[in-house]
Amino acid sequence: MAVELNAWQRDWPAPAKVNLFLHVVGRRADGYHLLQTAFRFLDFGDALRFSPHADGAIVAAHALPGVDPEADLTVRAAWLLRAAVGGTQGATIALDKRIPLGGGLGGGSSDAATTLMALNRLWGCGLASSELQTLGLQLGADVPIFIHGRSAFAEGVGERFTNVEIPPAWYLVTMPDVAVPTAEIFRAADLRRDTPAMRAADWRPGIGGNDLEPVACRLYPQVAEHLAWLRRRAPARMSGSGACCFAEFAGEAAARAALAALPGNMRGVVARGLDIHPLCAAAH
Q1: CA-to-CA distance for 148 and 136, rounded, in angstroms?
Q2: How far apart, in Å, are the Cα atoms of 193 and each of 27, 71, 115, 161?
Q3: Active-site residue set
Q4: Which of 22, 95, 106, 158 could form a disulfide with 17 if both were Cys (CB 3.0 to 4.6 A apart)?
């Protein structure tokens, strides 16, 4: 299937996400943790651009600092998609990275999901969203939600979704100068793993906390510092396994006022909550 040239020349957004709550409700026999969470996208994130590679190579235009090229999720996603359809196409993947690594905002997962959705179109693969989600789960538990493309209550290892309605909100997201390894948080002995499960239909915004927060705060005092500062101004939580934290505001002005008050040793960004992934329409 031919694709117009300007589709290759455009920027493809990869939004950040926040976890409005995150509970660990159990653990499978294989060691994977069973989670319940609510995902919301933000109008802040990375952007990717793809160009054809005539000899069939799949390469990143620029290496990510501190990331082994073989571990680059965008390149791995492209290889996975091509193998799934038996293709021979190539691509150069250029990533404009704004979401911090190890921040709990889903940056790597979002980049991988955007790669799958974009190249599914650019290469003319024709896979359905459900098929892309199955591929994405091989790359990471958070990849499928970005392909699903809607605010959702998630269960299992984070791959079973129930769409939810979330009121409009603005967020001040702060970014401690530390990368938190997800695996380190999940293997901590003091991580709570028995929070009672709830039905998706019973969840409402404001219900629940983040079971990973106490461990991250113990291991990384900067996370605790950011949360304490935010909570003096608005309801706040850590996102995912950290390190980023966020406070919720009803309007943009209040969020920007809080941003302006950030101490000099903290950095952050104001973002609006999104109900639909910017590429949702293009992915179906």
Answers
A1: 11
A2: 7, 29, 33, 21
A3: 17, 142
A4: 106
